[in-house]
Amino acid sequence: MYWKNLAAEVISSLLILLFVYTAISKLLDYQTFRMQLSKSPFITAYAVTISWALPLVEVLVAGLLLFNRTRILGLYTSLFLITMFTTYIYAMLQYSYDIPCSCGGVLAKMSWTQHLWFNIGFVVIAITGILLETARSGIKKPAPSQLPPIVYSTIS
């Protein structure tokens, strides 16, 4: 059981690190991030909104992952976000001729294919975290010795 708890904590920590790092990278180079989003063929019309909302959501998700009470929600939200990012990267690779990179920091140094595999890895990590956290915090079934006695009644 110890390794499950440790693995769940490590997974949450990795996701927190990822989301805080990417949010800070986007905000530190906000003008470039917004400009690159505006060049994206799929989200041009929403670039300004996304440029503020995305880092904010990433920080909020990291916050959810910090606390045991909200961790499962944070893990599901992480899975949703990373799956959206992965789908976006796949669509860009398949259907776009001009591929602007709106990533920051180390992630900007990756090729789009490397970034796709990186995200797929984090999808697997998030799913594993959900499974571990669900098993760790799930409702435990009572042991057979703890079950209430059976009451027999006779109908007269």
How would you describe this protein?
The chain is an all-alpha fold. It has helices at residues 2-28, 30-39, 47-66, 71-95, 112-137. α1 packs across α2 and α1 crosses α5 (112-137). It is elongated, with a radius of gyration of 21 Å. The chain starts with a helix and ends in a 19-residue tail after the last helix. The relative contact order is 0.15. The model has no long low-confidence stretch (mean pLDDT 85).
Quickly list its features.
single chain, 156 residues, mainly alpha, 5 helices, elongated
Q: How can the largest sheet be summarized?
A: none
Q: Strand percentage, roughly?
A: under 5%
In whole angstroms, how far apart are the ends? Answer: 51 Å
Q: What is the number of beta strands? A: 0
Low-confidence stretches: none
Q: Into which percent range does the helicity of residues fall?
A: 55-70%
Mean pLDDT: 85
Order of helices and strands: HHHHH
Q: How many helices in DSSP terms?
A: 5
- Return Rg in Å: 21 Å
Outline type: elongated
Lay out the secondary structure.
Layout: H1 2-28, H2 30-39, H3 47-66, H4 71-95, H5 112-137
Helix pairs in contact: 1-2, 1-3, 1-5, 2-3, 3-4, 4-5
Brief description of this entry?
This protein has 156 residues and is an all-alpha fold. The protein has helices at 2-28, 30-39, 47-66, 71-95, 112-137.
